[in-house]
């Protein structure tokens, strides 16, 4: 059997986020990988794979995929509330990963930052790092 990559894990993570209709409604700017388009509206969500080591066991491979998920908003309150929706959607979720069995999906760290947009308005980022452990038989 061919060893999989992180691509099916990414698809499953985003699919899980999209199942929460309250979350989808709260982020009119959408869900984006890596960065958002220049004219995206706020609030929005950005996710990025930050690590993905492979651990070969007896007859299987464990993939540990770490994702940073950021919510950006003009309001720190909105950013925190949307982040609460994200953690409620992902923490301990059973993701459906093609060709792999999800062992765990859990938040492992909190993230925060501030920036300004091109017009000088303050932006708030709240989020976290999530680890998704999967097992794939070889």
Notes on the protein architecture:
With 138 residues, the protein is of the alpha+beta class. It has a single domain (7-137), classed as STM4215-like, CATH 3.30.2000. Helices cover 25% and strands 43% of the residues. The protein has three helices and six strands, in the order ααββββαββ. Strands 1, 2, 3, 4, 5 and 6 form a six-stranded mixed sheet that branches. The longest helix is centred in the middle third of the chain and has 15 residues, at 76-90. It is elongated.
**What name does CATH use for the topology?**
STM4215-like
Give the overall silhouette.
Answer: elongated
CATH class: Alpha Beta
Number of domains: 1
Order of helices and strands: HHEEEEHEE
Biggest sheet overview: 6 strands, mixed
The pLDDT mean sits at 96
> Given the structure, what is the number of helices?
3
Structural class: alpha+beta
Helix content: 10-25%
Low-confidence segments, ≥5 residues, pLDDT <50?
none
Determine the strand fraction and express it as a percent band.
35-45%
Strand element count: 6
Q: In oligomeric terms, what are we looking at? A: single chain
Kindly report how far apart the N and C termini lie: 5 Å
What's the Cα radius of gyration? 16 Å
Name given to the CATH architecture? 2-Layer Sandwich
State the gist of this model.
25% of the residues lie in helices and 43% in strands.
Key traits:
single chain; 138 residues; alpha+beta; STM4215-like; 6-stranded mixed beta sheet; 3 helices; 6 strands; 25% helix
